Every structure is written in structure tokens, then in C-alpha cells.
Amino acid sequence: MSRDLRPPVDILHYEIIQEQASALGRMGSALEQSLARLREFDAAHALSEAPASMQPARRKLVMEAGQALWMFVVQREASGLRDSRHIMRTYNVPGEVQLCMGLVPAPSKPASK
User: Which pTM value belongs to this model?
Assistant: First the structure.
């Protein structure tokens, strides 16, 4: 029977690193998906031709992408990866999404009675 002779601290450190990598993967996938939804919306509704009634839906997608970007950047920084310029280039993050990064959306108003 083989036994792992590494000190418990090494095992714990390995598991922490493994979870950080997994979290980075999840956050990166969430960013990719939110940016894809925004791009699909833009492709379906040309910005110059989009009616004003579609702007709230688009704004919601931009805010969701900004939130996903924020979560990814924070997770990377917690892992020691401080330079977010690589993310912006690799994922081709639009400037408007970058500007929404970290903003908390206003709570929706309850329906009036």
C-alpha cells in the first residue's frame, strides 16, 4: 500500500491551487458566454437600426458582461495575475463592457399597484 508522504500543508496548497484554476476556468467561460450573447444581439439588431425599445435589453447584456468581466478580473487578481490587459485583448472585450466592470445594477422597481 502506497502512502502519500507529503506534508499536509503541501497537499492543502495543491488543492487550493487546483480550485483557483477551476474557478478561473469557470469565470473565463462565463465571460465568454456573456460576450457571445452581446455579440449575437448586436448581430441580430444592427446598432444603427435598432429601435429604442431594444436598448434596455442590450444595456442589460452589457451590464451582465461587465459583471462577468469583473468576476474574472477579481479571481485572476486573487490568484496573483494582476495585469488585466491580456484579458481585454484575448476576449476582445468592448470598451463599454470595460466601463461597466464592477458596477452594481440598480434594483428593479416593483410594479406599481
Answer: 0.79
